[in-house]
Write a structure and sequence with these properties.
By secondary structure, the protein is an alpha+beta fold. The chain has nine helices and six strands. Helix 1 packs across helix 3, helix 2 (28-35) crosses helix 3 and helix 5 (90-104) packs across helix 6. The longest helix has 24 residues, at 106-129. The chain starts with a helix and ends in a 9-residue tail after the last strand.
């Protein structure tokens, strides 16, 4: 039985949106290659997603020396687009943390944030410690991806970048950055080095990016 044309288009459109979720802001060429689609087909679906407010167009960020010409246009999920991927409980979570802050203060929110990620640290520690030297950021990215964070690790000047293309608490973290701070502390302890957050979904960036310096050796950063 043939799939109705509208259903087929909706299915492909969802694949385009999910590919942007998993891989971060992407060019039309990236999506065409990744999904084995023609450039014309990708642009048609991108136009529909733009019209629906699921994605937005941005100028591609260039790291290092910039070549000639204008940067390529990339497409990133909007808040509404990310909201379609399982963030329905955001309002309740934000209200609960707001109440906690009012009753017990901002320090209580930080204590909650650290408690929340403590279980992740315990879970990821054996995975990271068993990874070969130089592969620990990659191992952490794989562990995060298994928990729905759509993470990846890539080489960057001076080390690596740990990227998370999805965060289930991004909207809540807009009001309560303690959630991001606690997670960054855990990354530093797991990787054994001082890491630096360069961008977050909570601040409107297309991806959460954490810089991991070279020569990651183990836990207990100095």
């Amino acid at each position: 039985m043939a799939v109705p044309e509208n259903d087929a288009h909706a299915g492909t459109r969802n694949k385009v949106a999910r590919s942007i979720l998993v891989h971060g802001p992407s060019t039309a060429a990236d999506l065409a290659e990744r999904l084995d689609l023609t450039a014309a087909a990708v642009r048609r679906h991108l136009d529909a997603l733009l019209a629906d407010g699921v994605i937005e167009a941005r100028q591609q960020r260039v790291y290092g020396q910039r070549g000639r010409g204008r940067p390529a246009k990339v497409f990133a999920l909007t808040d509404a687009g990310r909201g379609s991927f399982h963030q329905e409980y955001d309002i309740l979570a934000a209200e609960a943390l707001r109440f906690l802050a009012e009753v017990a203060g901002e320090d209580a929110v930080m204590a909650f944030a650290r408690s929340r990620v403590a279980a992740l640290e315990t879970k990821y520690l054996p995975v990271v410690e068993s990874a070969p030297e130089g592969k620990r950021a990659e191992a952490l990215a794989e562990a995060l991806s298994a928990d729905g964070y759509a993470a990846s690790a890539r080489q960057a000047p001076g080390g690596e970048q740990l990227c998370q293309h999805h965060c289930p608490v991004a909207h809540v973290a807009e009001r309560f950055p303690q959630l991001c701070e606690a997670e960054t502390e855990v990354f530093a302890r797991l990787l054994g080095t001082h890491v630096q957050r360069l961008a977050t979904l909570a601040h409107g960036d297309g991806v959460c990016t954490t810089h991991v310096p070279k020569n990651v050796t183990g836990r207990n950063p100095a």
